[in-house]
Design a protein that fits this description.
The protein has two domains: 3-36; 52-241, Calycin beta-barrel core domain (Lipocalin). The protein is of the alpha+beta class. Helix content is 20%, strand content 28%.
Length: 262
């Protein structure tokens, strides 16, 4: 090989080495960035929550505080006609109230989603796990159960749900406290042996003076879920025995703030 050929070869080899070093440096920078962008589910410990769970009650030693409605919400409850309650038309209950109903429910964990199945109203909620490319809801995609996203964090399943439709009894059925399209529910589930526990926080600035927070727990059960199969005629029957409006002097009181909206 001539002197000129050797120099050209050396320059080519040096360029290849430099190129390889640059590629390695780029990969070292890009890979952590991609991992950081993934859902916490990619690296966090995933608890085994896939069971059927039977209702128990609030966590021991942690009594739940009552929700504090705004004057706007109280006024709506006073004006609302009981016979118009959605429950008389087989309308399903949404979060957070469905968590408190005395019916079993099931958790099914999949790679990219978590399915929550409830006996009450045969409700099925899908929690889309972050980091799997699921499409975001559109500007007008409001539903009764809302849109739920989730991730795993500190050995817990975190579920955040928004995009709810307006519900006339969305936060308290006996008192007819509604929930608005601004409602956001955050649930944090974890397991303690054969018990499932949750901390739930509901925010809705139109109808709540402060976030409504409660805890709850269930125990594992071998009983399969039963079909609810709401019958519209049967559901409508109890409405015949109610007056036009629910009037209870024990709750028609403004909060200590004087009912000022916040």
């Amino acid at each position: 090989m001539s002197c000129t050929g050797k120099k050209a070869f050396q320059r080519g080899a040096s360029g290849a080495v430099v190129g390889a070093i640059l590629l390695l440096a780029l990969a070292a920078w890009y890979l952590p960035a991609r991992l950081d962008a993934q859902s916490p589910a990619a690296t966090a410990e995933i608890p085994d929550l896939s069971e059927i769970w039977a209702r128990l009650g609030p966590l021991p030693g942690r009594p739940n505080a009552p929700l504090v409605p705004t004057a706007r919400a109280i006024g709506f409850g006073l004006a609302f006609d009981e016979v118009l309650s959605p429950r008389y038309d087989c309308s399903p209950v949404s979060a957070p109230l469905i968590l408190l109903d005395p019916f079993n429910f099931q958790i099914e964990q999949q790679a990219d989603r978590v399915i929550l199945r409830y006996e009450k109203d045969d409700v099925v909620r899908t929690v889309w796990l972050e980091g799997h490319g699921h499409p975001e809801p559109g500007a007008y995609d409001y539903t009764i159960q809302g849109h739920s996203i989730g991730w795993y964090e500190n050995n817990r399943l975190v579920v955040v749900t928004s995009k709810f439709v307006f519900e006339p009894t969305g936060l308290d059925e006996p008192r007819h406290i509604p929930s608005s399209t601004l409602k956001k529910v955050t649930e944090r589930y974890w397991r303690e042996g054969d018990r499932l526990q949750v901390e739930a926080t509901t925010e809705d600035p139109l109808v709540l003076l402060k976030p409504f927070e409660f805890t709850w727990e269930w125990e594992r059960t071998e009983l399969p879920l039963e079909r609810y199969d709401c019958d519209p005629e049967d559901a409508r029957y109890p409405a015949k025995f109610h007056g036009s409006t629910y009037q209870d002097p024990n709750w028609v009181r403004l909060p200590a703030t004087g009912g000022q909206e916040q």
